[in-house]
Specification:
Two copies of one chain form a homodimer.
Chain A: H1 3-15, E1 21-23, H2 24-31, H3 35-44, E2 49-52, E3 55-58, H4 74-88, E4 97-100, H5 107-112, E5 119-123, H6 126-133, E6 138-142, E7 145-148, E8 153-155, H7 159-164, E9 170-174, E10 177-179, E11 183-186, H8 192-201, E12 204-208, E13 220-223, E14 230-233, E15 247-250
Parallel strand pairs in A: 4-5, 4-9, 5-6, 9-12, 12-14, 14-15
Antiparallel strand pairs in A: 1-3, 2-3, 7-8, 10-11, 11-13
Chain A binds a DNA duplex through helix 3.
DNA sequence: CAATCAGTGTTATTTTTCTAACATTTTCTG
DNA sequence: CAGAAAATGTTAGAAAAATAACACTGATTG
């Protein structure tokens, strides 16, 4: 996926941040491109946005999640994420204190945590917090602040201090872009501070990123590749050339 | 619309109560009728359910969807609480920064805020935060910390400092007990710190409490009656004897 | 019992959405 | 700048959904 394509997707995601839907034609007009281009953007995207009968909606919105069948095309991406998270959770040990980043990539990870007895989860994302709160035996620490609908997360200048006070064993990070020379980047600048704080504090830094993130640069750069210890991805060896730094776990 | 038609719609609405979508074919199978019948049901119905590209979803622009809380609906006092909150919201002015306490009492208040253009809501409760996050024009500040499932709220020792940094116009407080001599109390000790911090900072302190809270003492005492400026309640004059301090608004 | 009518199913037609193919424009590269 | 590659637009056809038309069923009623 290319730069402009991603920018359009981000803009649309922002528009739909509070939920709701957008007709494909309106989305195209909003971005000043043809409907076909929006379709292609969606196909190349990470599945956060999805098309339902000509209407663009947030895939994560429980309002539109299918009750019954799961045979959607969109599910392909979701299946990849589940697979990656299943690999990633192998690193977790009983008693850990985990940091979980925002976005949709790491949502399946929370589901995988249900089998642990004693875990503390630290996050600044509302969707992650809601998922964790449903698991009664997990301890949850939410880093507060001003809410950013675009990423469903909180943050302010106090987040560094708040994270520093915690003893985090493992940080699970997500990134919208992962580039050999430009390192790790995300869409929103407000995500940078908590990500950096987590990287600084955590014992082990684990990045989970599907193949579509590879070779991509996003506006907000938050770390170098060398700053993470492990990369969990479904990208094949061929796609990884020039990527140095983390050990790689293929999902 | 006829009896059976309404019954099918009710059943489908029930299936989608928790959100989610249903393909028309599945909906038809679920009701044991043809797709065409479902289409006709929907056309005759009240528009609660709608068809989006072959998928049945709960209708209306979710952006302005009413904020429902499941706990709230189970609550016998729900109607009273809604009435009290409608009275309480009269105090709110455009541009305010509001503190909203935890519990179910103040949940209807959030729904009432949908019509304001410019508000900032400060809270330490997960249920309140989720409700506010769905309203686009509202700014949300969540006070983070360790999650307490018992009250669906967060809190730690840093909450005082976090609240003190904010300029709060009006604090909407809830209490589990309200007693002439023993003042205001709640169930959980972890609620005391944020409540006290809000009382200390806010310009106007508004306590919302239905009649069942009157004359009751709970384990965690957090304030005196005199520390709130206004009490919104449905209790009758007779029940209020000995209650001194706040001005009273009857809902 | 025939006529009627509401409720539903079936089929056909129109409209919309999706997909693929190819044309055009823009951006990159040597 | 020429040529290649990428991005986007346009068009046409396939698939799916929405609508309309008509047929069937079973109950009601005069």
């Amino acid at each position: 996926m290319n730069e402009r394509s991603a920018r359009r997707l981000a803009r649309l995601a922002d528009t739909l941040a509070q939920g709701g839907s957008l007709r494909l034609a309106d989305a195209a007009a909003l971005c000043g491109v043809s409907e076909m281009t929006i379709r292609r953007d969606l196909a190349a995207g990470d599945g956060e946005l999805t098309l339902m009968g000509g209407h663009l909606v947030r895939a994560g919105d429980p309002r539109y999640a299918p009750v019954y069948d799961l045979d959607d095309q969109r599910d392909r991406q979701a299946a990849a994420k589940r697979r990656l998270c299943r690999r990633a959770v192998e690193r977790v040990e009983e008693g850990d204190t985990l940091f979980i980043d925002c976005g949709t990539t790491l949502m399946p990870l929370v589901a995988e945590l249900a089998n642990f007895r004693e875990l503390t989860v630290v996050t600044y994302a509302l969707n992650v917090a809601n998922a964790v709160a449903r698991l009664p035996h997990l301890r949850l620490v939410l880093l507060g602040g001003v809410y950013h609908a675009s990423s469903q997360s909180f943050g302010d200048e106090a987040v560094d201090a708040a994270i520093a006070r915690l003893g985090i064993n493992r940080a699970f990070l997500s990134a919208a872009g992962l580039h050999p020379r430009h390192g790790l980047s995300c869409f929103h600048f407000h995500e940078v501070a908590p990500k950096r704080a987590a990287i600084a504090t955590a014992g082990e830094r684990i990045l989970v990123a599907d193949a579509t993130k590879l070779g991509v640069i996003r506006p907000a750069r938050f770390a170098e590749l060398e700053e993470v210890d492990l990369l969990v991805t479904d990208a094949r060896e061929g796609d990884m050339e020039g990527l140095q730094g983390p050990r790689v776990l293929h999902g």
